[in-house]
Structures are given as structure tokens and as C-alpha cells.
Specification:
Largest sheet: 6 strands, mixed
Strand content: 5-15%
Order of helices and strands: HHEEHHEHEHHEEHHH
CATH architecture: 3-Layer(aba) Sandwich
CATH superfamily: Uracil-DNA glycosylase-like domain
Structural class: alpha/beta
CATH class: Alpha Beta
Shape: globular
Distance between the termini: 33 Å
Number of domains: 1
Helix content: 40-55%
Radius of gyration: 16 Å
């Protein structure tokens, strides 16, 4: 058999997560698994925390208000959703949009790592504190946002979560400025 494509490998991984019974309690309260979307061979992966209500219903990450803001910022640097890959650490919506629990993040981390290994991005952008904590442990987002970090051979760019900027105008500007660094960082990699 020919080598499976990145998309085929991602499809297999999605089936594997669904079959694994990971976070059964979360899964039972969610409409569906929200695996990820975009270019399976992207240079750039964005990783958020967990799906919200719109994501749970549509089966795609970042389709609500935070997603619209993310799309605007992508436009601002000349990228579209189909140029990048976007996912969350936790693949099922936590009830009432609560923060994902440490054990839920831990349960999904091996799958997230596998997703990253399939896509092989040059740059991973973490959106918000939860995804940063999982991939870059021990840092404070307020101190490191917008600063590229190399960890275990991978380059990361920690950013505030777009949802935070929706409620805080000052943070919106910070996020747009941090976001504008992405093309330069990619060029250097």
C-alpha cells in the first residue's frame, strides 16, 4: 500500500480517539468530537483549549466569535483558514464551557502530540494559557506572550486566547500585534 497521506493519518487518528473512550464523561455530554481543521501539511498549527458551543455543534474548532476574530487576524497577515491547521487540546466540549480539567488535558495530550507529528509544522501557536501550559510547562502567558520559544526541537509562539480579546479591548491590540510577528517567525524557520 502507498504511504498514507497526512490527511489519511489524521482521519485514522480521529477514529482512534473516538474508539478509545478517552474522557467518556465529556464525550457523553458533547454532540461530537471536534478534531481539528485545515491544511494537513500546514507550516502553522494553532492550538486552543477546548471546543465551545458552536464548535461542538459544527464539529470544527474556532467557528464562534473568537474564530471570527482569529480569521480577521489571519487576514491581517495574509493567511486563510485553509493555509493553517487549527485544533484544541481537549477534543470534546466541557459542560457549560468550563475550563478543561488537568486530567482531561492529560488524556488528550498523546493524541495532540500525534496530530502534531503527522502535520510537522514549523511553528505552533498556542492560544491561551491552557494550551501553553500543556506544551510549554511552567511559563506565565502574561510574561511570554508574543515571544517565540523553542522546546524539544519545536518552535512555539504563545498568544492570548482570541476569546479574551473579545472582552478586553486592550488585549485585542496586544493580540493583533503579537499575531503580526507570525510571518517573520515563519520566515526565519
Amino acid at each position: 500500500m502507498a504511504n498514507p497521506t497526512a490527511q489519511q493519518k489524521l482521519d485514522e487518528l480521529k477514529k482512534k480517539i473516538e474508539a478509545s473512550g478517552t474522557t467518556q464523561e465529556l464525550a457523553s455530554q458533547a454532540t461530537q468530537l471536534v478534531f481539528g481543521a485545515g491544511n494537513p501539511e500546514a507550516d502553522l498549527i494553532f492550538i486552543g483549549e477546548a471546543p465551545g458551543k458552536n464548535e461542538d455543534l459544527q464539529g470544527e474548532p474556532f467557528v464562534g466569535a473568537a474564530g471570527k476574530f482569529l480569521n480577521e487576524m489571519l487576514d491581517g497577515i495574509g493567511l486563510k483558514r485553509e493555509d493553517i491547521y487549527i485544533t484544541n487540546i481537549v477534543k470534546y466540549r466541557p459542560p457549560h464551557n468550563r475550563d478543561p480539567l488537568p486530567e482531561e488535558k492529560a488524556a488528550f495530550l498523546p493524541f495532540l502530540q500525534e496530530q502534531i507529528d503527522i502535520i510537522k509544522p514549523k511553528l505552533i501557536v498556542t492560544l491561551g494559557r491552557h494550551s501553553m501550559d500543556v506544551l510549554l510547562p511552567g511559563l506565565k502567558i502574561s510574561q511570554v506572550h508574543g515571544q517565540p520559544k523553542r522546546y524539544k526541537g519545536q518552535v512555539y509562539l504563545p498568544l492570548f486566547h482570541p476569546a479574551a480579546a473579545l472582552y478586553n479591548g486592550g488585549m485585542r491590540q496586544t493580540l493583533v500585534e503579537d499575531f503580526s510577528l507570525i510571518p517573520t517567525i515563519l520566515e526565519k524557520l
